[in-house]
Write a structure and sequence with these properties.
The chain has about 450 residues and is an alpha+beta fold. Helix content is about 30%, strand content about 25%. It is built from 16 helices and 16 strands. The protein has helices at about 10-20, 25-30, 35-40, 40-55, 165-175, 180-185, 205-210, 215-230, 250-255, 260-265, 285, 290-295, 330-340, 370-375, 375-385, 405-415, and strands spanning about 60-70, 75-85, 90-100, 105-110, 125-130, 135, 145-155, 195-200, 235-245, 255-260, 280, 295-305, 310-315, 325, 345-350, 355-365. The strands form 5 sheets. Strands 6, 7, 8, 9 and 14 form a 5-stranded mixed sheet that branches. It has a 4-stranded antiparallel sheet with strand order 1-2-3-4. It has a 3-stranded antiparallel sheet with strand order 5-12-13, covered by helices on one side. Strand 3 and strand 4 (about 105-110) form a beta hairpin. The longest helix is centred in the first third of the chain and has 15 residues, at about 40-55.
Length: about 450
């Protein structure tokens, strides 16, 4: 009968295998009766789950298992364990005590089974040092994409009055769906005194308001914010956001970032993204994502009951993203955009001697800052239904190469006098064919 008793070393491997599968209830069944009396299954599952999930433990490896003591009904095994965490690889030496109950070894569990220095009154804290995203600059060092300040509109739930009608009013002012606000307010972490962000809007600068020729849009935004602040339970707070200084002038070229989705986290697993990360969606933001992103820093520490740092389990330093410098000239980019902003097409200015692109514009355009603040349904609909397709990036499309030779033909015509530069050739439309033998022209 005793020959069929599973050995403690095999049971230890089984116990550790349950961790990666998050089978904490199965782990609990392997404990001694005395251990179960000291901690309930609910507390055990919560304790283990919070710590292992918080550290993002995976790839657990056990080595050098040695039976230090074996007295028939008791056994002590020493072992080395390594695993990957959000803060890098952790390597530890530990011990596991086993006691025989009903001809089966059971684990004498304490918190030190999770981490050797961990006691029941300790907590494991995972802190993050968020990497700064690199800037995108023009040839002269002017910022095209970088940190900026916006205003976060938030609700303090406990201070709301006449909740239903108030939320309708807030939704109308911000041009967002009331259900979107209700969903955010119903999150598990929300308490009566919590600040619950519901929208990001333009920061109104005091200097802009003091100008004798204050922009109409600035005044309109200031009035909107004053209206919001008059509502009980509304609070405004400054936050740092990604800002695009050229806006419409370079929206297609620079692109924009957005918060990561569940699909992004799955696609980019192991690349340092978290639920709080942003990712480049288009333009240079997307093209140089790996360089701009950087890597967050993490610390995993054991904190004692007095809030003091007891031990550092693992640590990885923050790496800020790299700054990217383009050949673009900001002033030329803005000037080129202003010249063609109402025309459906794209324009490029290049240095003929080096091939450097000095300006690259797709028109008509949109303001990429709207993606950062969050577009209202009205704006999103208007952009998508606009027949001029302002979201369409024309300089990235494939076009018939014939037009690239037209300047050469035109230059020959001008030089030989075959073309009169003062003659108006008119606008014959968007397509042309010599005769019907060319077939259908789209």
């Amino acid at each position: 009968m005793s020959r069929n008793i599973e050995k403690p070393d095999k049971l230890l491997v089984e116990y550790m295998a349950h961790i990666e599968k998050e089978e904490y209830e199965s782990m609990y069944t392997m404990l001694t009766t005395k251990s179960k009396m000291e901690i309930s299954q609910e507390e055990y599952v919560k304790r283990n789950s919070n710590i292992y999930t918080g550290m993002e433990v995976e790839n657990i490896q056990i080595n050098n298992m040695v039976v230090q003591e074996n007295h028939g009904d008791k056994a002590v095994i020493s072992y080395d364990v390594s695993f990957e965490t959000i803060a890098g690889t952790v390597q530890l030496s530990n011990k596991a005590e086993w006691e025989k109950e009903d001809d089966k070894y059971r684990l004498k569990w304490t918190d030190s089974m999770i981490l050797p220095e961990l006691e029941s009154t300790d907590q494991v804290r995972v802190s993050t040092s968020q990497a700064k995203r690199g800037t995108i600059q023009d040839r002269n060092g002017h910022i095209l994409a970088g940190p900026g300040i916006a205003t976060s509109v938030g609700i303090i739930p406990g201070k709301l009055e006449e909740v239903d009608s108030t939320l309708e009013k807030i939704a109308e002012i911000l041009q967002i769906d009331k259900k979107t606000i209700e969903k955010k307010l119903s999150a598990e972490w929300v308490k009566d005194d919590s600040f619950v962000p519901i929208a990001t809007i333009t920061k109104v600068q005091e200097l802009d308001l003091m100008s004798p020729v204050a922009d109409e849009m600035v005044l309109k935004e200031k009035n909107r914010q004053d209206t919001l602040l008059a509502i009980s339970g509304i609070m405004l707070s400054d936050i740092e956001v990604r800002s695009y200084n050229l806006g419409e002038s370079a929206a297609h070229l620079i692109g924009y970032v957005q918060g990561v989705t569940a699909e992004d986290l799955e696609e980019h697993a192991g690349e340092g993204y978290s639920s709080n990360s942003v990712i480049g969606r288009s333009g240079m933001e997307g093209f140089f994502e790996k360089e701009l992103k950087g890597r967050d820093g993490y610390d995993i520490c054991i904190i004692d009951e007095n809030g003091n740092e007891k031990d550092v389990v693992a640590s990885v330093l923050r790496e800020d993203g790299k700054n990217i410098q383009l050949t673009i000239d900001s002033e030329l980019q803005k000037e080129l955009y202003e010249q063609f902003k109402d025309v459906r097409g794209y324009s490029v200015a290049m240095n003929p001697y080096t091939g450097e692109v000095l300006a690259l514009v797709s028109t008509p355009s949109y303001d990429n800052n709207d993606y950062i603040k969050g577009m209202s349904e009205e704006l999103w609909t208007s952009l998508n239904e606009d027949e001029n397709q302002p979201l369409y990036n024309r300089f990235r499309q494939v076009w018939c190469p014939g037009s690239t030779f037209k300047p050469v033909i035109a230059a020959i015509g001008l030089k030989t006098g075959k073309i009169d530069p003062n003659e108006d050739f008119g606008n014959e439309g968007l397509s042309w064919q010599k005769d019907e033998s060319w077939g259908l022209i789209m």
